[in-house]
Design brief:
The complex is a heterodimer. The two termini of chain A are 57 Å apart. In chain A, 52% of the residues lie in helices and 9% in strands. Chain B starts with a helix and ends in a 7-residue tail after the last helix. Classes of the chains: A alpha/beta, B alpha/beta. At the A-B interface, helix 2, helix 4, helix 5, helix 6 and helix 8 of A face helix 1, helix 2, helix 4, helix 9 and helix 10 of B. Chain A: This is Cis-prenyltransferase.
């Protein structure tokens, strides 16, 4: 491995103005070229190899991290310019707190400074339209670092829709644990009781009967006053499917069931509690001339919820929890699924990073290069291969459909 | 000021704890590295007056993109050929000849072996049906035999669809037959099971089991599928939610250790080594909780299960130095 000193001659050549200009032109060109094809929406990096880089070049560990940060800025430029929406980086794991106190403190200081730089020179992220988000467990982080994090998040919050996720004090198992815990907490909140609903069942049955019976009843004056009511009411009574384009299929099927039960007068009064009193008179009820779909879910859910109303508190059904529920409780909620994960320095492990997110389609790439050496030139083959595979898969899907069409 | 000088200056500043330069100075230094600021409307208009130039530029980009991808297709063909040749030569150099002694010899120099090996197999979609399933069974049998030869006590086989779980007795028969062809009469005892399958077939109870089990080894095979991945965590969440709703558990009791214990007991622990036999690394819905520190091995452009791949995985595992916390 060449020492820092030896590589200076090379970098003197590479950084002479004409060569530098040429390189930057080529970079621009390549970035433009790459963005012609499909681009991963969400890319994650494990920035591994800073310490080894420092050791190989005979410099201090912390300086290795510092050069690693420069590599990060370079790669962020490539990502955001080609059109990547979300970049997630693994900055500091919970396990890293077990390193020597000296290194942890130095890393914390560096993180504070770098974060301040990223957000303070807000040009940097603003020009890519990226905002910072810090994912991880806040309890373990010292208050001064937390303050720096909050400031950075605050400063960049108005930037565009690209996101830079910094995983700090993060492990994926911890993320999954908190997602599960949050889901449990959310599902353990009792549902708001269904008493304060502005309609009463007995009243509705009463109205229906009054519609069907020719002899005038108490609601007759209002019906005479307003002609439209028969029309909004009839579609969901006589033809429940008529309103099904506004409601989902479940609602419309159970609507027919509940409609048939309410037509028999006997069960309706028994399920209804005496909430008739706070409600206004019949004319007030029909006066707003609500669209036909409006009274319908209310009336439907009150009859559906009536069996459970015997228990004092009702909870959301745990069976309705799905993988999507947990995904929505991860730190990366609402972001596009992870398309590409790159880990440098030849270590072939995920090391507790993005375990949940590395699911079906995520392509994982392990590279031999150390992170401070990582640049467009190492990243280009990875991206091109990703594009190549993505294009081939799209072609296969297209071709498969065609073949099926031919009846092969 | 050249970039080199800039970098020097910047590092000096960084070394002195960012006291040397003011914020403005640092911004000045960074300027050449960041893209031009989004121009105001006045400056953007000239750009709009050059639609031809933009069009040409995008055409050039598209042209180079196509050239690049054509070149890449060529490159990838070459790379695939290279890897196939490499794979074949490994296969010739290291063939097991169905001799456990040879296999043992191949791994003799290794300083460590995985306690729990995991593999991802794929049911080939073009040969779905009987042929694909037979191939899959045969792969399982081969891998488990190699594991017994090497001395790996635990093997978990991930197959996305979970079709293998329906054929546990058949799988056991095929594995035992394969072992006979390697070991002769003294077959090790094999146990095949799957999570949440109540009736698991235990090799100990089968007819050939009385042949000295202690000397010829023991292998436990676990068949897992996509439903043991994310859905297990979902199921655990459902159970925890129900308990919490009934007041048997406070949400604060949900800890990493609790989940880890439950997941480990109901599915499996963390494997030490995960071997992929596919052309690229994709986990295909492999249980997320368990791959935390698992060494992932794969041979680029590989297709199909081969002894040489298995051996290379073990060699690469022995070389890798395990460090916790990166």
């Amino acid at each position: 491995m060449p020492s820092m000193h030896l590589s200076q001659t090379r970098s003197w050549f590479l950084q002479s103005p004409p060569v530098e200009w040429a390189i930057s032109q080529v970079r621009e060109l390549l970035i433009g070229v790459l963005s012609q094809g499909p681009i991963p929406k969400h890319v994650a990096f494990v920035m591994d190899g800073n310490r080894r880089f420092a050791r190989h070049h005979g410099i201090e560990t912390i300086e290795g991290h510092s050069i690693g940060f420069e590599a990060l800025v370079r790669i962020l430029e490539v990502c955001y310019k080609t059109g990547v929406r979300v970049v997630t980086i693994y900055a500091f794991s919970i396990e890293n707190f077990k390193r020597s106190k000296y290194e942890v403190d130095a890393l914390m200081d560096m993180f504070k400074v770098k974060l301040a730089q990223l957000s303070q020179h807000s040009d940097l992220l603003q020009r890519y339209g990226a905002r910072i988000r810090v994912l991880g467990q806040r309890e373990l982080v010292k208050p001064d670092v937390l303050e720096a994090i909050d400031r950075a998040v605050e400063l960049t919050k108005d930037n565009g829709d690209a996101i830079l996720n910094i995983c700090f004090s993060y492990t994926s198992q911890d993320e999954m644990t908190s997602a599960i815990r949050d889901t449990v907490v959310e599902y353990s909140k009792p549902l708001p009781s269904n008493l304060p609903r502005p309609f009463s069942q007995s009243h509705i049955t009463h109205t229906i009967r009054s519609r069907h019976l020719p002899p005038p009843s108490s609601s007759q004056p209002s019906a005479a006053l307003e002609q439209p009511p028969p029309r909004p009411l009839s579609p969901f009574l006589e033809d429940p499917t008529a309103s099904s384009d506004t409601e989902d299929s479940l609602a419309s099927t159970s609507a027919s069931a509940s409609a048939s039960t309410t037509l028999h007068p006997s069960p309706a009064p028994s399920t209804t509690t005496s909430i008739d009193s706070p409600h206004p008179s019949s004319s007030d009820f029909r006066a707003p001339s609500v669209p036909s779909s409006k009274p319908f879910p209310t009336y439907l859910s009150s009859s559906a919820a009536s069996p459970s109303s015997t228990t004092p508190t009702t909870y959301p059904d745990p069976e309705s929890i799905t993988a999507h529920t947990l995904t929505a409780h991860m730190h990366t909620a609402g972001m596009p699924p992870l398309d590409l994960l790159v880990r440098t320095s030849g270590v072939e492990r995920l090391s507790d990073f993005m375990l949940w997110q590395c699911h079906e389609r995520t392509e994982i790439t392990f590279l031999k290069a150390l992170w401070p050496e990582f640049d467009l030139w190492n990243f280009l083959p990875v991206l091109v291969e990703w594009q190549w595979r993505r294009r081939r898969r799209e072609r296969e899907i297209g071709g498969g459909e065609q073949r099926e069409g031919k009846g092969e | 000021m050249s970039a080199w000088q800039t970098a020097q200056l910047y590092r000096q500043d960084a070394n002195s704890g960012h006291t040397l330069l003011t914020k403005e100075k640092r911004e000045e230094l960074l300027k050449p590295y960041i893209p031009p600021a989004p121009k105001s409307n006045a400056k953007r208009r000239p750009n709009k007056r050059q639609p031809l130039r933009d069009f040409l530029r995008s055409q050039i980009h598209l042209l180079i993109y196509n050239i690049m991808h054509a070149a890449f297709s060529l490159y990838i063909r070459l790379r695939q050929t290279y890897h196939v040749v490499l794979d074949r030569s490994f296969a010739i150099l290291y063939y097991h000849h169905r001799a456990p002694e040879l296999i043992r010899q191949d791994v003799q120099g290794l300083n460590r072996l995985p306690e729990h090996l995991s593999v991802i197999l794929e049911l080939k979609s073009e040969e779905r049906g009987q042929a694909g399933l037979e191939k899959l069974m045969d792969d399982v049998a081969e891998i488990s035999t190699w594991c017994t030869c090497v001395g790996i006590p635990m093997l978990s086989v991930y197959e996305k669809t979970g079709i293998l779980k329906a054929y546990i007795p058949t799988a056991h028969r095929i594995v035992t037959r394969k072992m006979h062809s390697y070991f002769g009469q003294r077959v090790p005892s094999v146990q095949i099971r799957a999570p949440h399958v109540p009736s698991f077939l235990n090799g100990d109870g089968s007819d050939e089991a009385d042949v000295s089990t202690s000397s010829s080894g023991y292998l436990s095979i676990l068949l897992i599928s996509a439903e043991d991945g994310r859905s297990t965590l979902v199921d655990l969440t459902k159970t925890l939610t129900e308990m919490s709703q009934r007041g048997k558990l406070s949400p604060n009791d949900v800890s990493l250790d609790l989940i880890d214990t439950e997941i480990t007991e109901s599915i499996m622990g963390e494997p030490d080594l995960l071997v992929l036999f596919g052309p690229h690394i994709a986990l295909q819905g492999y249980p997320p909780w368990q791959v935390r520190l698992t060494e992932i091995f794969h041979v680029p452009d590989n297709a199909g299960v081969g002894y040489q791949t298995f051996l290379r995985a073990l060699h690469s595992y022995a070389k890798a130095s395990m460090k916790f916390g990166r």
